[in-house]
Amino acid sequence: MEILLIVRFCCNCTYALLYKPIDRVTRSTLVLHDLLKHTPVDHPDYPLLQDALRISQNFLSSINEDIDPRRTAVTTPKGETRQLVKDGFLVEVSEGSRKLRHVFLFTDVLLCAKLKKTSAGKHQQYDCKWYIPLADLVFPSPEESEASPQVHPFPDHELEDMKMKISALKSEIQKEKANKGQSRAIERLKKKMFENEFLLLLNSPTIPFRIHNRNGKSYLFLLSSDYERSEWREAIQKLQKKDLQAFVLSSVELQVLTGSCFKLRTVHNIPVTSNKDDDESPGLYGFLHVIVHSAKGFKQSANLYCTLEVDSFGYFVSKAKTRVFRDTTEPKWDEEFEIELEGSQSLRILCYEKCYDKTKVNKDNNEIVDKIMGKGQIQLDPQTVETKNWHTDVIEMNGIKVEFSMKFTSRDMSLKRTPSKKQTGVFGVKISVVTKRERSKVPYIVRQCVEEVEKRGIEEVGIYRISGVATDIQALKAVFDANNKDILLMLSDMDINAIAGTLKLYFRELPEPLLTDRLYPAFMEGIALSDPAAKENCMMHLLRSLPDPNLITFLFLLEHLKRVAEKEPINKMSLHNLATVFGPTLLRPSEVESKAHLTSAADIWSHDVMAQVQVLLYYLQHPPISFAELKRNTLYFSTDV
Question: Locate the PH domain: which residues (predicted)?
Fold first, then answer.
């Protein structure tokens, strides 16, 4: 009886001392979250509530980190405890080809495994491909590493085609569900979607992550994100600070360890949308505006910059980069970016120290390796982000605090073409009005931006894809609208991505698309023709049908984009990439017309968007098209296709 009372007393004490305080913090965190939702951003208590919520979440995260390892332990045949610290799917380069592996990081060993194929009803198991004791694992420095084995990169246009197929299949699945279609048909579509998503996940990563066994062999993974590479490296290095011993696993020990992987794994499914439950958030589609304000907490002066990553189609992509703030401990960037979201759920910010030492070059991709000073990630909560006001927050990373603001514009709002109320500028003004006023064939803004990009940006990696600083773009917009005499001087000093962004913004803000509202249905039908001769006749006739200012400007831009694509080995911008960036900008109908063409705002790769990309790609892949030749040609073809 006394023992029972003592046990009961101990249980009550444990509940009161351990569980109750944590439970109270959990409930307080939920209350703070609700309070933030209903507190105006400009209320004086809003930043205090943000700080309180951040402190609560950090406390709960630290508790979870302490608890998790105890639930992920395996006992070796010798009675030792080995804990699973991290696991995930990575792409390994093996025998010259890409293989999807499940990698498990234990407290003393890194194990690379592949899920065995099993017949229906049988228990799934992993097959160990290789392992390295952490005591024997080293990361070769850029100058020490050998060049990676030749792996042919997947063509960009094929990756984009996969994305289009995935989005088309997603739309078909949604239609089937809405029409209460047969479950067999839905499952068949889901299977096709998974196959395409798997191929995309396998072939899109390009960032090398090399590890080496002191006893000889090296292994190479390809990752989609520098953030992910840093996470794996840091997790391994943290464990290596302990007193680790080298060892060799016996066949029995290896079998026990590999057998435990299935039960202990924390990542159960390949990160593709077809593996998501129906009630899971589809993510955000539209434009995220982010201002990176400043950073604090650096111990010594350095040359510092930040990059922004968002997830898309199951993997993360770098979308923007601030300028380098030189020799400082408190950089103040105050740079704004517009980032396109494609079903995105997270935003990552990475802070780097710029390396100017050319001896430290990564032989895998020939780029200088900059040092990651800190990194952080936040969830893009639609209720928090989808407001008209800016939402300010702070990401804490390794003692560094980065302050930023963000707001979201949904896709249907961002697609609006709004004519300018005043006809004196160039943005939002019909192209015929601008060229007539300037007495030019191609608008001055187009000629100057193209000239500057070809002068010093044609070899810039991701030109036209990487976002320029929004404040710089707005400054250039104001200067061009005012026809300021300092335009040329400002262009020569401006970041090249801002100039590229200004050109894209000009075409996006035209009151009607460059290829006109009137001809839009015919372009959509023409690109769908299967007969090559009929398609050629139709597509050329449609060009002849454009007003002269539109046609001359289009042909001028077309030749420029072809010259950009000629530098693809350096700038990584293929014809297909450029068509993806410019297609919707040059063809998307104005607001009145677009109502008939837009489907779901969440379906960024809708049928129309795919067709818009294909139209521009057709002309980009076509032999040079001459304005004079088009006009000389007296053959007329009907636009009724």
Answer: 83-241
pLDDT the model gives residue 599? 43
Angstrom distance (rounded) from CA 398 to CA 275? 33
C-alpha to C-alpha distances, 310 to 284, 313, 349, nearest whole angstrom = 11, 10, 9
The reported pLDDT for the residue numbered 592 is 46
| d(C-alpha 409, C-alpha 387), whole Å | 8
User: What are the angstrom distances between the C-alpha of 180 and each of 168, 169, 543?
Assistant: 18, 16, 43
Per-residue pLDDT at 500:
96
14 burial type by CB count under 10 A (0-12 exposed, 13-18 middle, 19+ buried): exposed
- Report the chain's terminal Cα–Cα distance, integer Å: 92
Give the helix, strand, coil percentages of the chain, each rounded to 5. Answer: 45, 20, 35
| Below-50 pLDDT ranges, the chain | 3-9, 11-16, 18-19, 64-71, 366, 592-605, 634-641
CA–CA separation, 291 and 404 (whole Å)? 5
Secondary structure (3-state) at 450: helix
Whole-angstrom distance, CA of residue 512 vs CA of residue 441:
18
Taking residue 455's Cβ as centre, other Cβ atoms within 10 Å add up to 12
Q: Work out the burial of residue 638: count CB atoms within 10 Å of its CB; fewer than 13 is exposed, 13-18 middle, 19 or more buried.
A: exposed
The length of the chain is: 641
Number of helical (H) and strand (E) elements in the chain, helices listed first: 22, 19
Q: List the alpha helices (DSSP H) in 204-308.
A: 226-240, 251-264
Sequence-distant (≥ 6) Cβ neighbours of residue 495 within 8 angstroms = 323, 468, 469, 472
Q: What is the pLDDT of residue 620?
A: 96
User: How far lies 576's CA from each of 96, 314, 573, in Å?
Assistant: 26, 21, 8
Q: Which residue has the tokens 């990676």?
A: 148
The pLDDT of residue 598 is 41
Going from the C-alpha of 325 to that of each of 332, 508, 623, the distances in angstroms are 8, 31, 44
Helices 548-565 and 431-438 cross at an angle (nearest 10°) of: 90
Within 370-443, residue ranges assigned H as helices are: 382-385, 411-414, 431-438
Q: Tell which residue, 86, 465, 160, 176, has the closest CA to residue 313.
A: 160
Cα distance between residue 640 and residue 534, in whole Å? 12
Q: Whole-angstrom Cα distance, residue 333 to residue 322?
A: 7
Position 122 scores a pLDDT of 60
Q: Cα–Cα distance between 268 and 100 in angstroms, integer?
A: 14
**In the prediction, which pLDDT does 514 show?**
96
